[in-house]
Every structure is written in C-alpha cells, then in structure tokens.
Amino acid sequence: MGLFNAFLQSYSSVSLLGALLVLVLIYLVSNFGSQEDKDPPGPRPLPLLGNLLQVDLKRPYYSLLKLSKKYGSVFTIYFGSKKVVVLAGYKTVKEALVHHADEFGDRDPMLILQDTNEGHGVLWSNGDSWKEMRRFALTNLRDFGMGKRANESKIIEECDYLIDVFKKFKGKAFDMTQPMNYAVSNIICSMVYGSRFEYDDPEFTSMVDRANKSVQLAGSPSIQIYNMYPWFGKFISKRKEFLRFYDANKKQNIEMFKNLKKTLNPQMCRGFVDAFLVRKQNLEESGVSNNHYHDNNLLSTVNNLFVAGTDTTATTLRWGLMLMAKYPKIQDQVQEELSRVIGSRQVQVEDRKNLPFLDAVIHETQRLANIVPMALPHKTSQDVTFQGHFIKKGTTVYPLLTSVLYDENEWEKPHSFHPAHFLDKEGKFVKRDAFMPFSAGRRVCLGESLARMELFLFFVTLLQHFRFTPAPGVSEDDLDLTPRVGLTLNPSPHELCAVPSSRLSLSLHLTHHPLMAQCFSSQQHRKEPPGPRPLPLLGNLLLLGRKRTYLSLMMLSKEYGSVFTVYFGHKKVVVLAGYKTVKEALVNRAEEFGERDSMFIMQEASGGHGVVWSNGDAWKEMRRFALTNLRDYGMGKKACEGKIIEECEYLAEVFTKFKDQVQEELSRVIGSRQVQVEDRKNLPFTDAVIHETQRLANIAPMALPHKTSQDVTFQGHFIKKGTTVYPLLTSVLYDENEWEKPHSFHPAHFLNKEGKFVKRDAFMPFSAGRRVCLGESLARMELFIFFVTLLQRFRFTPAPGVSEDDLDLTPCVGLGLNPPVHKLCAVPCM
Ligand code: HEM
User: What is the ipTM of this complex?
Assistant: First the structure.
C-alpha cells in the first residue's frame, strides 16, 4: 500500500503508465533477480518491483524485521531492481560490522545523497577521501572539545539558554522541536564554525529548520522511490524540495566560509572550518596539489556534521522528554535521584556514575527510540563469504539496528520502556552489549562521545528545572509513540508542558530524605558554627596573624573543626576547612554558597560590576558572556596553543638577553620541536611537577570571599543568608587526610607506582562550584606550555652566591601569594 500511495502522491497516471512500460522493457532484457546458489535467502522478487509489495515504505525497518523472522539473520531483498542484503540480530550485525569491519565498511550512498554530496564529505563518501575527512574531522572536533571537559561548560551554558525559552511558556503546552534543535545545533556549530547563534537569528534558524526537514524528506516513500527509479526524478516534488533546501544551506555555508576566511588567523583556529582552511592553505603553499582539502570536501563535511550533529541528538532528547511525560512514575524516580544526588547544583559529567537510574533511562530511551533504525546503508568492499552465504563486492547492506535494539534474545522486554534493562539487582548501572544505537565498526557514529555528553547534560538539566507532562486534556496513554516517517525516527508531532519545578519543591522533596530531614530539624535549633570568643570592636583580630591570615585560620580549624566562625573586627565570617567540607559546600551546595562577598576596597573600585565582584543576574550574564567569548577566542582550545607558544618565544628572548650564550647555538639546540598540549599525557612527571607546584604554592589561600545566598543548614550548623564565607583552600591543598606529605614539594603526590600521572580530588587551586575560576582551562594550558618551553631551553639555578637552601619559600603578603623577591639564573640548556 505504501508503495502505491507514494506513486499516486507523485505522478499523474499517464506518466506512471509510461514509466512502468519502460521498466518492463528494461526488466525483460536484464537477468534481474536471478539468485545464485549461495546467495542469502529471501522472498522471491517480482519483475520491476522486486519485493516492494512486501515492504511498507513508511516503515521499511519494521517490514525488514518481520522478514528476518522468516528468512533468518542474513537475507536478500530487492528494492525495485536494487539487491540489498539485510543483517539482523545483535550477533550477526556485530559479527559483520566488527569482526568483518573492512568487508562491510564501505558506504552505499542513497541516490538523492549521491546527487548532493557527489562522493565528498564524511557521511556518504568512501575510499581515501572518506578516510582523510573522517580522520581530520575526528581530530579537530576533539581539539575543539568533543568528548572533553571543555565541552561540558559549553553544553551547560547552552542548557541555560534553552531553559530560558522553556520558562517563557510558563507551563503551557508547546512543541519543543525547534528550541531543542537550535540548542543542540549550537553545540556542533560552536565546534564547526567557532561560534553559537541566537535562537532568533533567522539565518541560523532557517538553516537548522531546513536541515531537519531534509532528514525527514530523505526517508519519505517518494524519495525512496526516486532512489530506486531515478528516471522518475523530475516528477517527484519532494525531491525538488530536498534539492532546494540543500542548495539554500549550501549558499549560506559558502557565505559563512567567505566571512571566516576574511578573519582567518592560522595561529588561532576558531573551529573546524578554520582548521580546514588553514590545512588547505598550507598544502597550496607547499605546492601539494591533488589532495583532499578542496572546497567540495569542506562543504560536504560541514554539512554532514551540521545535520548529523543536530537532528539525531535533538530527536533523542525529545523522545526522552516524551517518555518522561508518558511514564510519570519513572520521571518521579529520575527526579528523586537527581534531588538526592545533586540537588539544585549544576550537573557535571562526573555525576553520571552516581546517577545509575537516570543513566539507565537515557540508555533505554535510545534503545526504544531506535532513531536510526537501519543505520545508514553500507556496501561490501570485496566479495565476502559470511555465515555460509556469498555476498558479492559492491552489494548494498543494511545493518538493521532495530533488530539489534529489539533483539528478543538480548532484551527482557524488547518492546517496552524498561530502564531496568540497564540496572542490576542492586540498582547499579550495567552496560549491555546489544546497546548499539550508534552502530559499530568502521562507520560507527563519529559523534558518539559528543552525543553521549549532550544527552546526559541536557537531559539532567531539563529535568532539574522542569516536570514534563502531556498537554492539558491529553492523557499519558494518549501520547502516541509511533514515530514520524523520515531517515531518522522522530516522535510524531506533539506538545508537552514544561512545568517549572521550583526550588521549594526540590527542597520539599529533599526533606523526605533521612539525611536531609536531619538537617532541617537541626535548623530549628539554629546552631551557629563554633569559634573563638570575639572581643568588642576587635572581634578575633588578635588571633589572626596580620600577614598570614590563612595560616592562623588553619590553626583555628584544628581547634574548632571544619566549619567555624571568626570575627574580622565586627564582621562575622564562616570558614570552611578541609577538602571534604569545602567540596561539599562549593560543589554539592553550589547555589547556597555561590554568591560573592565583596571586600570593601574591591566594591569601591568595581562598583559591583564585572564578573569577579558582582552577583545576581549581572554576574550570570557577564560570566556567561566572558566564558563564551574567551572560548570563542580560543580559551582551552588548540587555537590558544599557538598564541601561548608565540608568547613563550618573547619570554625566552628576554631571558637569553641576560646570558652571554650564542643565540644561534640556542636555536640550533632547541631546534627540536615545539611542545604541544597533547604532549602532556606523555610527560607524567612534568605534569606532576606542575600540579605539585600549584598545590604547594597555594596562591589563592582563602579563595575569594563567598556569601550565603540564603539561610543554610550545613553540617549541623546554621548559617544566615548574607554571611561571609571563606573556603580555606590552603586547608584543602594541605589537607593531612588527603596528601601524604602536605607541607613538602612532593611531585609523587600525582604519580602512581608505575610513574603514571594520577588526578587527585583534593587538587583544588582553582576552587570549585559556581564561582570556580573562569579561566581554569586557559591557565592550565598556559602553565603547561610556558613551563615546558622554559625548561626545554633553560636550567634554572639560584643567583651566584645563593645556595638552594637559601631560597626562601615564604610567600609575600598579598591577596594572592607571590614568591618573595628573588633572582634566578636561566642558563640556556645545551
Ligand atoms: C543520539 C545521537 C546520535 C545517534 C543515535 C547517531 C547514530 C549514528 C548512526 C547509526 C550512524 C551510522 C553508522 C553506520 O553507518 O553504521 C551515524 C553516523 C555518523 N554520525 Fe552519528 N549519531 C548521533 C549523533 C551524532 C553527532 C552529535 C554527530 C556530530 C559530530 C554525528 C556524526 C556522524 C557522522 C559524521 C557519521 C558518519 C560516519 C561515517 O560514515 O564514517 N552523529 N550516527
């Protein structure tokens, strides 16, 4: 039925008859459909139509699943005259894609995508060009943050924008497709173009809308007919629409490339496009012609990343929210786990391991949503004998991912939404082999790590802020899970309500938890943190060393514990000491301890503006803007590396002026190559030395003063809203429970027995939580490159006449701890 409907949608009956006649003639002169002995079995094809009568073109994956029950896990089917081998079930798909990765690893582009991509790019290409583009895209997307921490804050920031949009609907029902697409698209855009876009920027929104519509069109029955019978092309209106969208996005991309080219700085690539243009330029300059870095590959690869990076993840998220609305009890469980484990603080990727139920729900959403049901068509790169069947080189192969994700031998309840598929008896998360929504093998999804991070952060943040329900008048049962037709499976059009879950309801929720209930009841006693008795006017000033307040506070913490009160004159201050306490306050209770308390002098100077000394919405906006823009200008990215290396050169020049060594000898010896950030992983000892320097130097010993944003009960103590709080970072970096030799310079703190670098939780020189240093990634990169470059070129020694022991490590007084005034020799290395 689907087939004939598709015909009737697209043709007049006269042209249809004419076309059928042509097909009959072609069939008669061909030996179509003749089966070889060892061909995989399959239903007998009809002339011209092949097996189209057995396939519902609106849901071909579903028909193939049914056919696999009859013909087994490797079978042949004819889409018109096109012979296709279908692989079904986890074991078979895995065996083909993973164990015979090369043989089954080529792509068979559908005709409509061959027309537009012409064998370029990464999705629909093959051979050396595909290999080079895939490698280049992977390397560069990783450099621009894919799967890394750098991306985490970008995604979290984008969640904030999305939340603002959702809030505007004030709990009323709306279609979430567009805002979700824009938010997700911005993540790939910032990696590809180097910037995000506003949701009301018509250039951006039209590009996303067109991409989304194209994916839907590419899976429509009439375009499938075109893929099988190209002769009908000009009669198919959806094909024309698809090509129109493709051309419009192509034009827009060409315009964007032009603009990026105008401002291109090879030392500072903003994103994938810059990196590509620089590579292209370098190859041209060195006279290498005939390479893969040409405009067509740029255009197709960017388009592929843009489409694949937007549609898939946004669709999965919409399925997730719809499933939450349909199964409110599961949503309850997710939100209970969220409030118990992270409360209202900002989520981090690291939290995933402590949120097994939520993780299971995301995995189960991906499994059931099954958004790429037949993967993308593969092709055999050579003759293969597989499970006793012969498959000729060049045969189209569909790895039927539906049959893996719904495999009855692998899943207990393959057709239900059952998060327990991913939980063991103790409620711990368990991986499942047959979880294969990203496919596997050579053509496995290139954006898997990015998608996984996005799904987690977006999903958690949305569920922290909203409760999702069906539109008024629609029951949970009415929510229809039948997917819309398309190349990827979207939910059918629907609206949901995103009802803001107020902080109050979160807190109320929390009081049900025994630990929290304990806190709430102790609040009634208003037990303030202990501390030394203050004198009138002076407070505890006599106890606080004038120069090294942080050391006095360390001493006081030994007496009064990890949360204590101290009076700076008449100003009451609560001090937090030790890794566990500081982390609990700044990370787990980020909101309550996240305000800045201005020092009077800073308040006078800054007027409460800017990002360090401000609070409220102004701070939020400035921090977000500064972070986005510093990142756009390279912070924490490869783009920054070149800039820092350049600066090292200037510094090295200054240093060498003080020595009488010959410049020429210097450059010859250091002529070895320049360090790169990537080298860090191969320099564990250097890395440990840098970390240990930061730990021991402890340059921000009391962080900057915080302030409670509301009344807080913390570790049994009551702290009033507006109280100044000092997270005593010294007490974290020198915590005797955390460090083996807290007061010595001991790089081994960061090395395991094999000499490999190990992270330490109590390494917190940048502080943590809401007010964590905004420039952490930049600083870490600078420290590494400066330090390594200087040590590559110089040996540092005390000034003549000063012994190593004479070098005094007592820091200078100041807001940050500087080394005391001293001179060193920078002796150029051989
Ligand atoms: C939930 C999200 C996603 C899902 C379920 C998904 C799934 C898939 C699947 C099934 C394939 C086809 C694999 C095959 O042919 O065997 C694929 C390919 C691909 N995906 Fe994804 N994907 C997702 C997100 C992303 C993102 C965010 C990006 C952006 C970088 C991306 C980029 C690609 C590319 C470039 C390919 C083609 C790889 C090649 O042919 O070598 N995907 N994806």
Answer: 0.97
